[in-house]
Specification:
The structure is a single chain. The chain is 36% helix and 22% strand. The protein has helices at residues 6-13, 56-62, 84-98, 112-123, 141-148, 167-175, 190-193, 196-208, 223-226, 281-295, 300-308, 336-348, 369-383, 395-403, 417-427, 444-451, 455-458; strands at residues 4-5, 25-26, 29-30, 41-43, 66-69, 78-80, 102-107, 129-131, 155-159, 179-182, 215-219, 236-240, 248-256, 259-266, 269-275, 318-322, 325-330, 355-360, 386-390, 411-414, 433-437. The strands form four sheets. A nine-stranded mixed sheet has the order 8-9-7-10-11-12-13-14-15, with helices on both faces. A six-stranded mixed sheet has the order 16-17-21-18-19-20, sandwiched between helices. Helix 4 (112-123) packs across helix 10 and helix 6 runs parallel beside helix 8 (196-208). The longest helix has 15 residues, at 84-98. It is globular, with a radius of gyration of 24 Å. It starts with a strand and ends with a helix.
């Protein structure tokens, strides 16, 4: 972060600082007292179980020179505000306005982080680029990303997430994207957003709360997004596979053993792309990146080179061989759309043995949970030879699989990771392909680790 004084930060966030401390300079803001570096401002956040104000002495020991607080502390010079989290957001908003970098903001029901990584990969050669780490996409992670952005950055690629109404509007007001990407409108978080129309309204706030000249980049195969193309004053560009009227279109898709290959047409360009990731949904992620790249005048050959060596992050669709079996590790998160896509990947991989789906609950689906878990079970019956599930909601997945034609002895439900892993060890063998998928809260990587006898990681 660029060095700033307490007086400047206080003016940005409406805080109060004693006159004798106004000239103190800070070079960063940190909310974790264990990670504070000398010269930083400590952000005292209040959570349900932890009050950051209690860690001010620890932050001081690490070298913090001041603190952002909602109650005065005698340990350090303080900026006092009513709500430290909101003040943090205001500081990030002003910091973004002060620096001249452009922002690509990405939201959507599924695929945000993978799309963010692909966009960053195609832009990194032509711009001094910074991107949000992991999925730092909420009211703490986004301000952190903006304040961590180096001064010489030309382009920031940031993810904006939501599970409650109003969050995209708040985050967009902070990030002020110049390019606003919406990957899709699914059913993830429908429990809190009410309906797909409610999700659409929330996602479109990325335009409503941004700059007047913000450009929208939307999935044109999604009817809810396509139907808003003439609404509002913002310019919108569309990409798609099935909709030939999109500005950028993918065709000739080949799902290969080591990835997907397809043809791209758009903005006067025609070129091929190969991405070393499995599944038709990866075409959408890469096509989004190509659309952003073309709008920013990145050469097709640059995009071809960068996407051909793309590597996904975290626990998102890693495919590897272990003990004679093919493992599809996709444990980071799950919704109906992404789980259906993952089952498609499971079915597409060549196997000399069985195809096994190990599925955890898909959370935050509200009153659609039972129907969606049942529907996924019906799909699993067509894509897998064996289904093992974990979580209270996934009982319906087993029911769906059985009614969809899977023999009852091939569809089992478990109450613990340990029991699931024990049975999987007995039923899996060389030549099998095994998919592990579930919402983040289900921690399906634990079942995987126990299955592979990775006891240290499974603790």
């Amino acid at each position: 972060m660029k060095e700033l004084t307490l007086q400047q930060l206080a003016s940005w966030c409406g805080g109060k600082v004693a006159p004798e401390y106004e000239a103190i300079k800070v070079n960063g803001i940190q909310s974790d007292s264990r990670k504070v570096q000398p010269g930083e401002l400590f952000l005292a956040l209040r959570g349900e179980r932890v009050d950051g104000h209690e860690y001010i002495p620890a932050a001081k020991e690490k070298g913090a020179v001041a603190a952002l607080v909602s109650q005065e502390s005698g340990e350090l010079p303080c900026i006092v505000v009513e709500n430290t989290l909101r003040a943090y957001g205001e500081i990030a908003r002003h910091y973004r306005e002060m620096l001249s970098f452009k922002v690509v903001g990405i939201t959507g029901s599924v695929g945000k982080t993978t799309t963010k990584e692909m966009i960053a990969s195609v832009l990194a050669r032509d711009f001094k680029l910074f991107k949000s780490a992991g999925n730092h996409n909420n009211d703490i992670g986004l301000p952190m990303t903006i304040l961590d952005t180096p001064e010489d950055t030309e382009l920031l690629v940031a993810e904006l997430g939501t599970n409650h109404p109003g969050e995209i509007s708040y985050l967009s007001a902070i990030a002020q994207p110049d390019y606003a990407v919406i990957t899709n409108i699914g059913t993830t978080h429908i429990e809190y957003l009410g309906s797909r129309e409610g999700i659409l309204k929330e996602k479109l706030d990325i335009l409503r709360a941004s700059l007047k000249n913000t450009v929208g980049i939307f999935n044109g195969d999604e009817p809810l997004l396509w139907n808003v193309r003439g609404l509002g004053d913002h310019k919108k560009y569309y990409y798609g596979i099935d909709n030939p009227d999109c500005d950028v279109v993918a065709s000739g898709i080949q799902e290969l053993e080591d990835g997907v290959r397809f043809h791209v047409s758009g903005f006067g360009h025609e070129f091929e792309l190969f991405v070393p990731a499995l599944g038709r949904h990866m075409v959408y992620n890469a096509l989004t990146a190509a659309t952003v790249g073309l709008l920013l005048e990145v050469k097709p050959e640059t995009m071809q080179n960068e996407l051909s060596i793309f590597q996904n992050t975290g626990m998102r669709q890693k495919v590897y061989e272990k003990n004679g079996m093919t493992i599809i590790e996709d444990c980071y998160n799950a919704g109906p759309e992404s789980t259906e896509a993952a089952l498609g990947v499971l079915a597409s991989i060549k196997a000399t043995g069985k195809r096994i789906a190990v599925l955890g609950d898909m959370l935050e689906l509200g009153n659609r949970s039972s129907a969606e878990h049942y529907r996924i079970g019906r799909i699993a019956a067509q894509k897998a030879d064996l289904l093992l599930t974990y979580g209270a909601h996934s009982v319906r997945t087993v029911t769906g699989a059985i009614t969809g034609g899977m023999p009852p002895k091939h569809a089992e439900h478990f109450d613990t990771h340990e029991d699931l892993a024990r049975v999987l060890k007995m039923r899996a063998g060389e030549g099998d392909v095994i998919l592990f998928k579930g919402s983040r809260g289900m921690k399906m990587e634990r079942s995987l680790q126990l299955f592979l006898d990775d006891t240290d990681s499974a603790k």
